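Practice problem 4.
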């Protein structure tokens, strides 16, 4: 029997990093995302964000392709939010790219706590600075296109 642990910290920004996610309505968005992840036989450990991006901590099922899951999250939530104009009146879409960073199972709670504290964290640091640090830690070169 195969044994696979695939824990991903995924970061998705809004189109052109615009502040279009209404924080008061994000809990409904996060519940919607949880259903999308569950429909892909995967586990959502944590989700949170601010007006211009979200973070997810996901245990990806071995049969699921990461890019397919992120595509489905972006596509279905985008359609849903555009139907929920009263909740997300400014939402224009997600950015073209996303970040996905792997973590060991032993780091799950550390990353989950980091995600849960996003709103406090961003009182001290911009999204762009935060994202640069994630890329640097992962050994990925910065390119502004990554945040379009």
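Answer key:
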């Amino acid at each position: 029997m195969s044994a696979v642990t695939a824990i991903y910290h995924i970061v998705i920004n809004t189109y052109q990093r615009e502040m279009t996610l209404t924080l008061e309505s994000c809990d409904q968005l996060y519940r919607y995302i949880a259903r999308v992840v569950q429909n892909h036989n995967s586990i959502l450990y944590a989700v949170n964000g601010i007006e211009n991006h979200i973070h997810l901590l996901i245990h990806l099922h071995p049969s699921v392709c990461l890019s397919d899951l992120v595509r489905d999250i972006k596509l279905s939530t985008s359609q849903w939010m555009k139907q929920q104009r009263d909740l997300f009146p400014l939402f224009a879409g997600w950015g073209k790219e996303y970040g996905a960073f792997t973590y060991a199972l032993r780091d799950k709670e550390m990353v989950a706590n980091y995600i849960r504290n996003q709103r406090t964290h961003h009182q001290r640091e911009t999204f762009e600075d935060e994202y640069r640090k994630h890329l640097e830690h992962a050994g990925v070169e910065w390119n502004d296109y990554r945040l379009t």
